[in-house]
Design brief:
143 residues, mainly alpha, Multidrug-efflux Transporter Regulator, Chain: A, Domain 2, three-stranded antiparallel β-sheet, two-stranded antiparallel ribbon, 5 strands, 55% helix
Length: 143
């Protein structure tokens, strides 16, 4: 397969060309050259961009993602870093689940006002203290 120009890569990867130029500047991807003024990329860059997108979605920084590639450009994923990030995501999911449930309760609460609702007042106290609670108990991973 022949090289892809920057517009083709941007279209296939779903990112603007400016992102590709920025990733190249950061050393995350490399062009193979130019055809006129347009950068050219090996088709394998699309897989690399998919890995970068996955890492970004998971919450890894670009510096962390850069360390996930061996000097020859092949993925070299640190399994411990992946497990640690998965644990962080689990904690965040628990926190967001509690927040979602709290908002649903507040939206449907039968009390005359939210301030008269014992559950809502407990949620306010939890928010003020920086803890996340589930049924009056501190959720794992909350501070």
């Amino acid at each position: 397969m022949t090289d892809l120009d920057i517009a083709e890569v941007a279209r296939h990867a779903g990112v603007p060309a400016s992102t590709l130029r920025y990733y190249e500047e950061r050393g995350l991807i490399a062009s193979t050259g130019r055809r006129g003024l347009r950068r050219q990329y090996d088709p394998g860059v699309l897989e690399r961009l998919a890995l970068i997108a996955m890492g970004r979605t998971a919450g890894f920084s670009l510096d962390e993602i850069a360390r996930m590639f061996a000097p020859d450009g092949r993925p070299d994923l640190d399994r411990q870093a992946l497990a640690t990030k998965a644990d962080e995501l689990d904690r965040r999911i628990r926190e967001l689940t509690v927040m979602r449930d709290s908002l649903r309760h507040a939206a449907a609460c039968p009390a005359p006002t939210h301030m008269e609702c014992p559950t809502f007042r407990r949620l306010l106290r939890s928010a003020a203290s920086g803890t996340v609670t589930v049924a009056g108990k501190r959720a794992p991973g909350s501070r």
